[in-house]
Specification:
Length: about 260
């Protein structure tokens, strides 16, 4: 009877101070709806029962020690209830954390899918105008009625090369998603290094003309062919030239010979 009375009194005290807000809202009805809801602690019900069990055990032992009240009729089950409530609390928090991780993983996958779709749509939007510029330049080069001059032909060929490079960059954006999935294919073939470097030198010579930077291709003509993906090889050379062009000041002379760069 002592244990039952202590447990009942502790439950009433916890309910009265509002430690279990759900019970107060159920019991008080409409009055609780008008009050702002309090933030419920995760697993507060388990904590409440654990505290009740611990307090009852302490009170019973104090009554037995200090007041000689016999409490041996019922075995002490409060420590078991306390440990059980803590175990349930830990399992609840672990399950909630796991559920939250699953929700965040689903959101991350959706965001990654939206990003890939955005890149695909953007790449398609870029390809159409670039191909249009390339076809216009080629039609002007192949115009037999009004053949371009040597200077115009050189600039039109440069426009064709630049638009082709930009188109390749657009395809590289699409290759990024394939690379993550392990589906990127590399088209290895023998590549003549000097013409590949010469094409990039011509492009960047035109881009660096306003800075008085002169690029010179000194790759040997009889250099053995390199086994590589031709488009990506040209992209690597172009990136190197672009980085060097940004690092050099005006009126500088840059020479490229077989992978080495010198400037003066």
């Amino acid at each position: 009877m002592i244990r039952i009375g202590l447990i009942f009194g502790t439950v009433l005290a916890v309910w009265a101070i509002g430690f279990i807000p759900r019970s107060r809202r159920i019991c008080l009805g409409n009055w609780s709806r008008s009050t702002p809801p309090s933030r419920k602690v995760e697993g507060s019900l388990y904590l409440a029962f654990a505290v009740i069990a611990l307090n009852v055990f302490a009170l019973v032992q104090n009554l037995n020690v200090y007041f000689a009240v016999p409490v041996d009729s019922v075995p002490p089950f409060e420590p078991l209830v306390y440990l059980l409530m803590l175990a349930l609390l830990m399992s609840l928090r672990f399950s909630n954390a796991f559920r939250k991780i699953e929700e965040l993983s689903v959101q991350l996958l959706k965001a990654d899918k939206l990003k890939d779709e955005f890149l695909a749509r953007t790449s398609d939007e870029f390809k159409s105008p670039l191909h249009g510029v390339m076809h216009i330049a080629r039609s002007m080069l192949d115009n037999a009625n009004h053949p371009p001059t040597a200077e115009q032909r050189e600039k039109l060929e440069l426009i064709t090369s630049i638009t082709g490079r930009l188109s390749q960059l657009v395809y590289d954006i699409l290759d990024f998603s394939r690379l993550k999935q392990g589906e990127l294919a590399v088209d290895s073939m023998p590549v003549d290094v000097r013409p590949a470097v010469e094409m990039q030198v011509r492009i960047y010579s035109f881009l660096c003309a306003d800075r008085n930077i002169r690029l010179e291709n000194r790759v040997p003509e009889h250099l053995p062919y390199a086994i590589a993906d031709e488009s990506r090889f040209g992209q690597i050379v172009g990136n190197l030239l672009g980085q060097r062009g940004q690092a050099y000041g005006e009126r500088e002379h840059c020479r490229h010979s077989g992978g080495e760069s010198q400037h003066d």
